[in-house]
Amino acid sequence: MTDVFEITNKDLLGRIGKLYTPHGVVETPTVMPVINPNLRLIEPKELKRYGAQMLITNSYIIYRSEKFRQDALKRGLHAMLDFNGPIMTDSGSFQLSVYGSVEVNNSEIISFERDIGTDIGVPLDIPTAPDVPYERAKEELEITLERLGEARQYSGNMMLAGPVQGSTYMDLREEAARRVYAMDFDIYPLGAVVPLMENYRYKDLVDVIVRCKTGLGSDAPVHLFGAGHPMMLALAVSLGCDLFDSAAYALYAKDGRYLTVDGTYHISQLQHLPCSCPVCMSHTAKDIASADEKTRTRLLAEHNLYVTFEEIRLIKQSILDGDLMELVERRCRSHPKMLSGLKRMMDHSAYIERFDPATKSTFFYLGPESAKRPEVIRHNRHLKNLTVNGKILISTRKDVSREGYDNFYMVKMPFGVFPEELKETYPIGQSETISELGPEERDSTLENILSFIRDHPDAEHTFAYDEVWESPRIKDIEKAAKVVHLG
């Protein structure tokens, strides 16, 4: 692995990092605004005032235009776009996915990216769409891998991205990630995920990201191609994505759409602007909606950029504070499909726990998904290491009599059992949970209690509980321990 990426802070799979490029150091996670050379809503040199550190443009569009091609070759890409920060160029793979063919081959486009001074170039990979037949996905993956293999012959000193393909076949995604990582690229884009996001298939998106991450090394900077809506950035960062590219700020603006972290509104439907960015503080919704098309589009694009980078800054602060999970849970409850993504993320908690910091800020219980958080998994895994023997009392109340027992364990939702010695330590001592037990909270906690009992069969366990813990799960505990109902 090259030494272009340095991780400085972590939470869940998310991290703050430094990406070293020929035109400066970029702090990740960040979004690269997409610049179409033909349609510049906002000039590249203006982007930094919104929070952009680097941008992405399409080398194929530049290559196909005689005017742009000659200008880029003569003056260089940075001078042509009037941007002095890092620039990444896509290779035409998007056009390939839309039109089925492009008027350039792999070696030509890589050589062109190199010659115009791109910081990070992308080979001409095949973006295999979701749900295609397995054999097609495998065949196209092999073509992509072959093209990636030849890329170094033409890249010179340019940094190279190695796209990870494989459609919606998780074995292919993981295999592709392992093979691409072994080729030692500088960043690793996850390709062909836009259709998943366009169709709100966040559950499938989570699976794709996690399986790709499984194949990549933990030091690999990951770019989620085509992801730029602020609503889903926290989820993607928490799964280990570092770079995003956003055409959404411009495309949505052209359609009169106003981005927020909770979803998208059409400007004509808004009476109040729920934002404090410079655009929203100096205009009313009516001002923007009634403006001429050019002005309206420009104002919406500016707002969309402001809200996108505001979310990136909040995500970074959440990583530093150790409460990224709380932000993810809040964001994912803004849409049912996002919530399905959160639920699927929790299915991968055992994997996430391997990388999640052992201590952080307060654990907030925000719903049933919190019962599967990495902290809960880690707590119960650590309990397996305890030596437990003799007569053990596990109680949902502190004031129960402990006479006749060798050891006493308390219960806390959603963790389950914990020794009194841990009551001030993280996460038990720093967790904020609801006082009213619902069925899901209660039963997930009882499952953890039962697991503790089964993990320590040499002890004689008694479980004492009060009426709020009544559940069919109690009968399962009765098979492994003595059960006492507290009056």
Automatic annotation (TrEMBL):
GO terms for cellular component: cytoplasm. GO terms for biological process: tRNA wobble guanine modification. Substrate binds at residues 125, 192. It comes from the Archaea. Belongs to the archaeosine tRNA-ribosyltransferase family. Exchanges the guanine residue with 7-cyano-7-deazaguanine (preQ0) at position 15 in the dihydrouridine loop (D-loop) of archaeal tRNAs. The gene is tgtA. Its EC number is 2.4.2.48. The keyword Zinc applies. Gene3D superfamilies: Queuine tRNA-ribosyltransferase-like. Its cofactor is Zn(2+). It catalyses: guanosine(15) in tRNA + 7-cyano-7-carbaguanine = 7-cyano-7-carbaguanosine(15) in tRNA + guanine. GO terms for molecular function: pentosyltransferase activity; zinc ion binding. Pathway: tRNA modification; archaeosine-tRNA biosynthesis. Residues 14-337 form the tRNA-guanine(15) transglycosylase-like domain. Keywords: Glycosyltransferase, Metal-binding, Transferase, tRNA processing, Zinc. NCBIfam families: arcsn_tRNA_tgt, tgt_general. Binds 1 zinc ion per subunit. Signal peptide: none annotated. Zn(2+) binds at residues 275, 277, 280. This is tRNA-guanine(15) transglycosylase. The active site is at 90 (nucleophile).
